Amino acid sequence: MSDSRETVLRHHTRLIGPERASLIRAAEQVLQDNWVGASTVPSRSLYPHQWSWDAAFISIGRSWFDEPRARLELLTLFDAQWSNGMVPHIVFDQATPADAYFPGPDFWDAGRSGHAPRRNGTSGITQPPIHARAVWEMHQHAKDVDSSLAFLRTMYPRLVAQHDYLARDRDPTGIGLPAIVHPWESGLDDSPAWDRLLGALAIAPADIPAYRRFDLDRADPADRPTNATYDAFVYLAARYRDSDYRDADLLTSAPFLIAGPLFSAIYLWSTHALADIAVAIGQDPGPHRAAAVRISTALMERLWDAHDGAFYPRDLHADRLQPEETIVSFAPLLDPALPVAVVDALCARLESICFHPEAPGHFLIPTYSVRSPGFDVRRYWRGPVWLNTNWLLWHGLRLHGRLRLAEEIAASSIALVARSGFREYFEPFDGSGHGTDDFSWSAALAIDFLRRPA
Ligand code: 9WN
Fold it and tell me: How far apart (Å, rounded) are the C-alpha atoms in residues 395 and 401?
């Protein structure tokens, strides 16, 4: 490790020692303040409903201090699971005013699908399936083991249905990885990873339904996606909705159809968790272990670019990789079977100047290469550091014994929230906070970073 990196680590570590307990208390308070009865809103102002992968991150953090609510969070989400197994990306709070968030329940009109559980209570798309992993991680440190085992038994068939849905209905070209039909499904909505595909859509203005953004009333426009990007988001969501969410028609109803490294790696990491859950409750882990081997093989065969030494999303219409230096490329570190040479290549890239600014006061890991012409220190997913991507990489690196880099990422994450509060994301060079404040997963994952044993 270079001298400057030692300095970065010391600089950040120094920030956490004496403040650890009060930081944990402050994070717990954010989660309590954002609890709305049976679930947690990501943010009172900007995201006033329940979001799918947020709920998983939130449960993991909350489980360190309130196991019943952590479990209730996921039960609430899965109560809205569709009959085909799809876990919706938003569960709407019916009491929240219609102009609190766009697109709301009327836009999604989920009842058009015969699978939606309650008329218009959810969105019509999904998000990364990190829930099985969340359930298993919560069980690892559960104090009330009996309740936790009962929870595993309740959740297991629902999690299996979620995974079956992705394998059965979301693999239209048979590549062995789940396809997503919208950037919102990736969780990294505005990532430059999707720019090329969105730019090629050639959308006629008449095909974009009239809409009004409410996010700009509540957030700085310099942080949020541009209006042109929103037009593409709304167009794609309307196309899928207008097919009545029929996954059999994806090749025609989803002009944006990709298999991505982050979504796929999370799916794989959760598949391993499903096997562990199965063992814990006396079920057969065999099918999950076999699925994990298949997904791991497909990741290497379909998303690995041997020439660049990087994982990229694959456009399923053109059957072509979409090279772009974004954070999604590193998520396959969550695969325990990743060949050592591939782990080495990913770590070398992570430690390069593109993703590892090396000066005291700089923070890891930017979500886009700082050397890319489109790198933006503020706009969401186009450069800023997020705690959830850091947390995923931290786990992936620990899985492969890359402890020094993992520790740097953890130290940087903690330093960010200590310095700027539980903001939605952070400027990598000065650590300033952006997006909404009191953001639930920043608080939840800070707790996990601070409380998980080394
Ligand atoms: C659209 C809630 C969600 C996160 C996503 C993040 C952002 C929504 C938005 O907020 O997306 O789903 O309106 O921008 O990109 O990852 O789940 O926190």
Answer: 10
